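I am writing to request your help with a piece of structural work I have in hand. The matter concerns a single protein, recorded as an amino acid sequence and a row of backbone structure tokens. Could you please explain, in whatever detail you think fit, how the structure tokens follow from the sequence? Thank you for your consideration; the sequence and its tokens are set out here:
>
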Amino acid sequence: MLKKLLKKNDFVKVYHNYLYLLLIQGTNLVLPLITFPYLVRVLGSEKYGLVMIAYSLMKFFIITVDFGFNISATREVALLKNDMQKLSKFYWNVLIVKSLLLILTFLTLFLLTISVDKLKLDPLIYLLSFGIVFGQSIFPTWFFQGIEKMQIITIINVIAKVFFTMTIFFIVLGPQDYYYVPILNGIGFILAGLLGFFYSLKYVKLILPTFQEIKINITKTFSLFVSNIAVSLYTSSNTLILGFFIGNSVAGVYASMEKLIQAIQTMYTPIYQALFPNLSTKNNKEIQKTIGKMKLPIALSGLIISFIIFLGAESILRIIFNDDLITSYYKVFQLIGLMAFLSSLNMLYVTLYFPAIKKYKTRMKILVSGGFFNLVVALSLVKAYSIYGVASSAIFTELFILVFSLYFYKKTLHESI
């Protein structure tokens, strides 16, 4: 599909970046899919659910520290990559903001563990899970994506995470070992992050930005930050809602199924991420032409995947997890399987199209509306319908976002005529 969308020179760069980004995304999502079935059996549903609730909370903090730089900084680096002075200053600008946010989020987590009853029951599991946030925040994917040099950093990332993830099979041997899960995952993320950070220094000089430049960067990126927080309201909050209102076991069941859907989304995310630096340098008409060509193949692939999940939900869960509790909820998996179709198209607009044409506020409107919509619906349905209510909320939200995205997409088409 990429070859038809791009010129020959652009295709080579984008295709290579796509492969490396696919490897990074695949590592982040497929490795847990390898370990989680093992953890379900070894830890039991209660401890496994607790680990997944902590992981879901960390995703909020990861998004906070990222602050939307996965889009804005990638675009800016792509534009500045031939100017060492400006590139270096911008690099340290982003790093300073992320460092401040990292400190702020850790203090927030600490306060939550001493004040929220649910978290006070086992504060150490949440604090140890913060290693993932630290590692993810210092790994400069946005920088390497922008300068379109992903090869070495991908290898570093994958080797570090694979090694420490595999150690779970040798160290986590029973329910009493559940603390080791966030520790080992955190070490993998931190090591990859540090290696990525030090490797990135060969491409920049130490040129610190002024306070005014940092302030401008924060202001320009704030709408993306709000958008990304809104995304987490329907991608991460559902596990937390189930954990708080129903219990750890059911939250773990939902998180397991959600992981499978996120693994499917991994196929699309690298395509959009690889195309983004290239598209961000094009004019609006060229961007719209590219999106127009992508709609049908993306929709068809998502529809096929959703259909396969619907037909084989029970068998898929039994093969992957081999757990009677998770398999008994196969109808939930059939339901959220629709997300493979809906989210693939949503991502085309909110992850690629609107950021590429710099419609950050439009993207924010869509995602904030969707985030609050999910929160209201999920909280309304969870007590009466438990996991089925939360799963329904996720599908309604994806549909809501798709309709909203299409409306604004067509509006921008008319504006450019």
